[in-house]
Write a sequence for this structure.
């Protein structure tokens, strides 16, 4: 049986600031970087990302870039999305398309995102980010800020914000 620890060891994954584990798998070194308001970025980067039963939450964060998420192995992942206009949406990334799970999920830049392992030991996904990911383009959610922006979603904000001091 393939476990979360198998993926961490096999893929060389490291703890991610959002929660879970990751490793960059690609950056478009063969292309010129593109200008963005925050500086030059790769045209595309990608990572493997793993949520586990001991690290099941991808805490609230905002990316400037668009991100495609692809489910590879394990249990479904539920995504919670807070859009700039205050609208909430959710999606489940997984293998059971007959139950409405998506194999691929696109999250536009500028949308707040949190995710959690729906059940089980782990979920292995990958993400393709365009323009390429840079930590300067990511904001971790702070409860006070998100509660002010999205007061109607206070329960979700509190449930999936990274604990202060971690």
């Amino acid at each position: 049986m393939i476990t979360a620890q198998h993926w961490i060891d096999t893929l060389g994954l490291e703890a991610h600031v959002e929660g879970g584990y990751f490793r960059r798998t690609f950056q478009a070194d063969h292309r010129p970087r593109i200008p963005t308001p925050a500086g030059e970025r790769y045209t595309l980067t990608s990572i493997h990302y793993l949520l586990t039963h001991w690290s099941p939450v991808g805490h609230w964060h905002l990316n400037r870039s668009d991100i495609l998420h692809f489910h590879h192995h394990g249990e479904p992942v539920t995504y919670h999305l807070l859009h700039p206009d205050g609208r909430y949406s959710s999606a489940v990334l997984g293998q059971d398309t007959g139950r409405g799970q998506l194999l691929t999920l696109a999250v536009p830049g500028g949308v707040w995102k949190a995710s959690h392992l729906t059940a089980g030991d782990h979920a292995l996904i990958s993400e393709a980010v365009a323009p390429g990911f840079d930590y300067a383009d990511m904001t971790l959610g702070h409860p006070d800020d998100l509660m002010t922006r999205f007061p109607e979603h206070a329960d979700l904000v509190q449930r999936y914000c990274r604990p202060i001091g971690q």
Notes: The radius of gyration is 16 Å.
